[in-house]
Amino acid sequence: MSAPDWLNSGDNSWQLVAATLVGVQSVPGLVILYGSIVKKKWAVNSAFMALYAFATVLICWSGWGFRMAFGDLMVPFWGRPDLSALDQKYLVGQGFTGLYPAATLVYFQFVFAAITLILIAGALLGRMNFKAWMMFVPLWLTFSYTIGAFSVWSPKGFLFKAGVMDFAGGFVIHLSSGVAGFTAAYWVGPRMAKDRERFPPNNILLTLAGAGLLWMGWTGFNGGAPYAANLDASIAIINTHVCTAASLLVWLSLDMLFFGKPSVIGAVQGMITGLVCITPAAGLVQGWAAMVMGILSGSIPWFTMMVLHKKIKLLKKVDDTLAVFHTHAVAGSLGGILTAIFADPSLNHLFFGDDPRYIGLVYAFKDGRAAAGFRQMGMQFAGIAFIVAINVTITTAICLLIRLLVPLRLSDEEMMIGDDAIHGEDAYAVWGDGETYENSIHGLGNISVAKADEMI
């Protein structure tokens, strides 16, 4: 079949590459990061939570999720579910935006939905019942993620129409995952006291490898947001990396200043907050603003994590394993607010078209349009409030529903053992100092000859 007149092969190619880069952030990126940043006994379970979510979201997204997030209007904040995304006639037609088929958009938006669920898992590592997680993923995607995506990103969504600016997911993905992860962690309950006190990474080098895939994959995360291989995509990409590098260095410097040592895990946290903070603004701000955002994203979430977390009762009570609330909810909100301050009208024009509403406060004062700048600030706070409200409410309802069917939290006995109790598998063949598999409790050394014969 010949290519239709509306198809731009360059844009289509870039969008597919960008989507794959985002997919690589999850598989293998976060699979590796989660599997290595936790205690050895949780490596398999943590990595598998990410892999399971990726596969499950794809099935649900193709079946009904995409249309609920970007399809026909059902209510002002939600699309009507249908099976169009499985129909070839629909998939080869032009998508709702961009010069490429709907199939490309389904794929591109899928990887964003998938990584959101995987980020939520980061708050729940080390104690959530895997059966509960299996239920949580499709329910949360269906009843929470699709609402946020439709409201903020769909041209028919009420927050999109109101003028909320979220270039690539500061609200839809990061604020949502941070709030939902924190809420779910509250209902699931904490890890064992011993794990909360000491939870060392089992492989820092692999943690860095996973973090590197996350960082480089963000090229597609923000670079694909304009839905075209255009000037705005290039600006978004360079801003993303500038902000991230600045954030990492600021976080590292604060760790050295207050704790005396350059922390590798701290540097990874600073990298993540920089990536998250620039996401709602990546193609809307100039390079100097991206640098400022990096400085703030390396310091404000550091302060909330290292200082406020120890003083606020609720934060201390909830066991957020990888501090997803600070790295995603705080950094995502910060990025959304800074977008309203630094968004350049000339760059807004590239992304939003000829709409004078989109203007950062800095430029609004400069142009004598302070009211427009304050209006934009108000819209950003309204977007934050909506995303927080739906995620607290719906995540709570989902957890309470699942709790009626299976326990949300693993038993103490299972948490003592970890992977082998849950999956019957372990990450490494060497069990301890000089202790090999054959001589461990899992090997044949402690099994009777008769029993061994039966197994053979």
Automatic annotation (TrEMBL):
Lineage of the species this protein comes from: Eukaryota, Viridiplantae, Streptophyta, Embryophyta, Tracheophyta
Keywords assigned: Ammonia transport, Membrane, Transmembrane, Transmembrane helix, Transport
Protein name in UniProt: Ammonium transporter
Limits of the Ammonium transporter AmtB-like domain: 14-428
Record's GO cellular component terms: plasma membrane
InterPro entries reported for this sequence: Ammonium/urea_transptr (IPR029020), Ammonium_transpt (IPR001905), Ammonium_transpt_CS (IPR018047), NH4_transpt_AmtB-like_dom (IPR024041), RhesusRHD (IPR002229)
Family: Belongs to the ammonia transporter channel (TC 1.A.11.2) family.
SUPFAM superfamilies xrefs: Ammonium transporter
Molecular function GO labels: ammonium channel activity
Predominant localisation class: membrane
Chain ranges passing through the membrane: 14-35, 42-64, 106-125, 132-155, 167-189, 201-221, 233-252, 264-282, 288-309, 321-343, 381-406
Function: Involved in ammonium transport.
Pfam families on file: Ammonium_transp
